[in-house]
Design goal:
Helix content: 25-40%
Number of helices: 12
Largest sheet: 7 strands, mixed
Shape: globular
Strand order of the largest sheet: 8-9-7-10-13-12-11
Distance between the termini: 11 Å
Strand content: 15-25%
Length: 346
């Protein structure tokens, strides 16, 4: 098997750590460097469990990592969006392919960034070049990608819950309501009182209801591409007092005559052959505990009268970030899509 050399920028964040863990057990990738200002000089296997295959590789500074780009074919960026916005152009100019786990290149419209990401986008040309890596919906785009925008966790859970029914034209327009709840790892490694144990334990709350959430336009953009028309929606994120996982509940009005059989046929047609999607018959079967620490998304739907109810669940650090990135990396470099993701697969 050929070996692809990869660097990881932002290796001490939750998504970066998960990606490094996955890469350490992958037979086709060799990690050249991993950056972390906070852990510079510390070995990866000391800080990240189950990475002994990386040997004595130590975290390095951003500067030291960029100095090794000549040894890399691809770099994954798992940083805040502002950092990846500044870093990705440097990587591309050095001739390496990029998988960006931040949100810097997910939205096609640069005008949305000030409202949803709180910065002006300075690389507008790259927005048109970036390939959006929601694998199950846009698989054919991914192998050719030079810059791949890895989807957000909420956006993956929501878009995949709705896409089958838009594809089959089963939904009435402008009736989508999406409620999604995430574990606290979705906020990153913030040293903030709002995310401390004393504030979160025993609580369950909505957030950013009146302030724009960055995944809302991403969800709308993805669904518009599937439906081939603008899709309006309401999106309400919630914070769960657990470490990881997302449970997403979608409500929509169906077109007249839509039956449970139509709904099940749509799910089977879109996801029936997908190795990392588990379609269930009952929404009550969809649980975070069933997908935590796994690279899978679960989904189920039912019809009540003219109302559709869909539930999806995923691990926000895996299918919502790191394992989806590796799924895309596999496709970019010609490996089997699930290589390094399913237990026992070589």
């Amino acid at each position: 098997m050929k070996t692809v050399s990869i660097g990881v920028i932002g290796g001490s964040g939750y998504s970066g750590m998960e990606l490094l863990r996955l890469l350490s057990g992958h037979p086709g990738f060799r990690v050249v460097f991993a950056t972390s200002e906070r852990w510079e000089g510390r070995s990866l296997r000391e800080k990240i469990p189950n990475t002994h295959a990386l040997g004595d590789l130590a975290f390095c500074s951003m500067e030291a990592g960029l100095a090794q780009l000549g040894q890399c074919q691809v770099v994954a960026t798992a940083t805040p969006a502002e950092t990846s916005l500044a870093t990705v152009p440097v990587l591309l100019k050095n001739g390496v392919r990029v998988v960006d786990l931040a949100g810097s290149f997910r939205l096609r419209d640069a005008h949305l960034y000030p409202a949803y990401y709180a910065f002006e986008h300075t690389e507008k040309a790259l927005l048109g070049e970036a390939v959006y890596g929601l694998t199950e919906l846009f698989r054919s785009d991914i192998p050719k990608a030079t810059l791949l925008a890895n989807p957000g966790c909420y956006a993956t859970a929501a878009a995949m819950a709705v896409a089958p029914f838009l594809k089959k034209q089963l939904l009435a327009e402008d009736t989508l309501v999406i409620n999604a709840a995430s574990g606290v790892s979705g906020a990153g490694r913030r040293a903030s009182e709002d995310y401390s144990y004393m504030e979160i334990a025993g609580d369950f709350r909505a957030y950013r209801i009146r302030r724009p959430h960055q995944h809302r336009p991403e969800i709308a953009q993805t669904l518009a591409r599937v439906a081939q028309r603008p899709v309006d929606l309401v999106f309400s994120p919630h914070l769960l007092p657990i470490k990881r996982g997302i449970l997403c509940t979608v409500f929509a009005k169906t077109k007249p005559g839509t039956s449970q059989a139509h709904i099940e046929e749509a799910l089977e047609e879109v996801f029936g052959g997908e190795p990392l999607v588990e379609v269930h018959t009952s929404p009550e079967d969809i649980r975070i505990a069933s997908v935590a620490h796994r690279p899978h998304l679960q989904v189920a739907a039912c019809v009540e009268g003219e109302k559709l109810i869909v539930l999806s669940a995923l691990d926000n650090l895996l299918k919502g970030a790191a394992s989806q990135a590796l799924q895309n990396l596999n496709l970019m470099f010609g490996y089997p899509e699930t290589l390094g993701l399913l237990y026992g697969e070589k």
